[in-house]
Structures
1.
Amino acid sequence: MDNKTLKEGIEIIDSHFKNEGLSRRDAMKMFGTGGAAMLMASSTTEVQAGSSDAKGKILIIGGGLAGMSTAARFTNSLSNPDITIIEPGDIATSYQPGQTLVGAGIWDKSEVVYNTNDFVPDGVTIIKDKAVEFDPDNNTVKTAGGKTVKYDFMVIAAGVVLDYSKIQGLGVEKSITSLGDHTAVDHVLGKNGITSIYYQQGSADTWTEMQKFIAEAKSGKKVKGVFTHPNTPIKCGGAPKKIMYLTDARLREAGARDNAELTFYPNGGKMFGIKDYHEAIVKQFEARDMKWNYKHNLTAVDPVKKIATFDKHWEEKGEFDKDLEEYEMIKKHENVEVPYDFLHITPPMAAAPEIANSPVGSSKGWVPVNKETLQHVKFPNVFALGDIAAVPMGKTGGSGRKQYKVVVENLISVMEGKELTAKYDGYTVCPLITSIGTVMLAEFNWASKKPGSGKNAAMLSFLDPTEERWIWWLLKVYALKPMTQYGMLAGRA
Ligand SMILES: Cc1cc2nc3c(=O)[nH]c(=O)nc-3n(C[C@H](O)[C@H](O)[C@H](O)COP(=O)(O)OP(=O)(O)OC[C@H]3O[C@@H](n4cnc5c(N)ncnc54)[C@H](O)[C@@H]3O)c2cc1C
């Protein structure tokens, strides 16, 4: 990093901390101890502990980031909380955003593994099981272990499943989750150059395979790295690119970049849904000689021959429709075979089938909610949040951090027979790691590329959000994890 960048970064930090009434020394201490959400202090909401006497049995499906944080906030907000969580996993609250850093050898896997039990709020009952049958007309849920659980109010926060089984040739027979049992993929992923940071062990294996790839490039072999983005909504839409940027950075560090060709194959036709961020990313790719081919969806892998097959798709003009006064558009497809030495797979993702196909699911699988109040469209005593909620954009922990406050406030209003007043505005944040030491902090909501003022404002909103900055690297690598542990999972921020 040159002196000018360093100076600019320090000035930015100073000006922010001055606003927060902190000296740089104090702020850096907080980074180190991870004690508080200092950079986000302006966007946190005070907890009103025990502020409602509302009563009712609340059942939360899924004790991951969104579910456990919601339980904590209910515990802080109700004088008489009666909360049960159904969660099958022992490490459900682990820090998934850190898996990108594990994948590039910046963190060790042990730094992102948390025991679920350490984050269960006092007084909350955990049922270590899976919810498999939903009867919202009778307010009951059945677990795989045969238990029937009755509720007055239910919050669904069961995340997504990773469908590696949809990719032919991998020989994967069932879906897995990011922090659950991954034995279904162990025979093929995390070896022979096939990697995926989307599940925890996969992220550690990605670093092992990446080092072999770099060693091959360093030995003088011309190598190819291929990075995919599927045709379904995914959590953390930036992660498929982040791991590519980090591969680029690690190759440069090793002095081996010239021997590697890195290509991104997204199913979509752009780098990012928001024009300014899309344009910034295109420039960053060009500057790093990273290549891309839009509208390619990974359909098959031959792990022996090391060939990835993509469905390349596009539209062509067909007949002119005189009544509609427009051309019919015809979808075209072609199979494209791409050899690879290192393949990073971002798998297709979906809501867990036991929820998607139940009365609380929908034809698209996601739990249908009012996108602002997060209340179920059919069952007023049911809410959903996090990755499983049918909300446009935003399958990120950053969106969950806004959503869980809305769910708690609105569900308490339902319990108290009041109108729902809290609204989610679509806030999402994607700290796009662009190298070791820089991040572009893409913050946006449904209305804007850069959320405006008040408690929903962007962080350091006076800065151009399309710039890559090391301050955001500090935020990503040092601050976001403690903020999640001590802020969100404690129901505070
Ligand atoms: C590689 C990677 C990088 C990421 N990077 C970022 C980032 O930089 N910034 C960011 O904000 N976000 C990031 N995310 C996304 C973020 O981690 C998720 O959006 C967040 O964890 C979603 O929380 P959730 O509670 O909805 O789902 P999860 O945390 O996945 O929890 C869902 C829980 O539901 C449980 N469950 C599933 N089915 C059932 C059932 N039938 N019954 C009971 N329980 C069930 C599961 O066991 C799981 O514990 C990243 C994710 C990954 C994988």
2.
Amino acid sequence: MKRLLLAFFFTGLLGFGAAQSAEDKPAARPNVLFIAIDDLRDWVGYLGNKQVKTPNLDKLAARGVHFTHGYCASPCCNPSRTALLTGLRPGASGVYNNGDDWRKIVPEGTVTLPLHFKNNGYYVVGAGKIYHGGLNRLSDWDDYLNERGRGNEDDPDGKARGKGKHQANEGWDGVGGIRFGPLDCDDKDMTDYQSVSYIVKKLGQPQEKPFFFACGLHKPHMPWSVPKKYYELYPLDKIELPKVLENDLDDVPPAGIAMARPNGDHAAILKSGRWKEAVQEYLATITFSDAMIGRLIEGFDKSAYKDNTIICLWSDHGWHLGEKQHWRKFALWEEATRAPYMWIVPGVTKPGGVCNRTVDYMQIYPTLCDLAGLPVPKQVEGESIRKLLEKPDAPWAKPAITTWLYNNHAIRSEDWRYIRYANGDEELYHNSMDPLEWTNLAKKPEYAKEKEELAKWLPKVNKEATGGNGKNPEKKARKAQKKAATP
Ligand SMILES: [Ca+2]
Ligand SMILES: [Ca+2]
């Protein structure tokens, strides 16, 4: 109760909205524009990537506070999103992989983020990919636009994936599971375009209640297939490959090598001679996503809610493009775990804020509650980062924690990354000296103290995995999709 009162007090101080009337009505709650991007790693201009073109994300980041060290709770769509949206780390929910249906697994009484806002008088609307595909729960929302054009109980899974040009099999090419290839279509033919249009339309309507609008972009998830014009921005002869150490895996223990799968995607890419092309196609797809963010923010800026709406933008995890001979997410290193993450909060953040503290997405749920003056549901594990939004260089002692599959964790502090696998294998990187994580120091006795300190943060709760582990979730999903698309 005390927390609630305090929250009300601070919300009042911020002067959100202008509803403090003579009858002493509580101040209007701020609106929320919640933006989820799928599979966008740290390749954005504002985080220092030199070849990518992300003018809209760069502009948006400059309007508030962006985090240079924001990390996912899990490097995989479903566990990352479930952790963020339930406030429960994978070990606490048992949701470790894309095959784990969070709706059946999370502890009873778990209140999800959108539902919590809905229960507290918000008008809660979503579009695109917020929960992982097929695992949406329509009762969390007042309205939802799925891939078919509408969320409804007859089509809760958005099974229509594959009907739009963007999802059709035409134009897909690539190397094994790394799928890419330009599309002969317009932006308008893309699901993400429709999701943005839907949210912009909602922003243009008068709203009686405070709102929580969630816009989930599917790209730059594979296939890296977007309209041709985006590829033309990245001539193949100018593409730079990521900086990779050839024998980087020599000091990585067996559990880490098993995650890297050097004989899988990476071997196939090398054999094909198409590494640069793959990088080009990822870059093109990122710029498409950036253009969609540009449309969304343009619509937002024209709306009546520009000055009383919190923007929280995140990508669900990172991506490897050959670093550690690994491709995709599904690993515990920097490339797979770090992703773009920013907040624009009227009355709290100032333009140009840069926060270098290590934070993970477990803080999003409690921070949104804090900023909106809502109580924090019991199950939520994280704590509000409000003080970092107010003052980006404020002290923050916590590391970011990422879990991939059962009981494998990475602890990322400002200087170090410590990885402990379920079988006891370890890696330790001195990130402030070795940002590409090339030298594993875990076996060096002189760093025993650092390891011990970092190990204190290892999650204590590691619920047994219920299923979905050990299989390649994307392959499984693709098979199912193909089957569904066959008449
Ligand atoms: Ca993802
Ligand atoms: Ca190495």
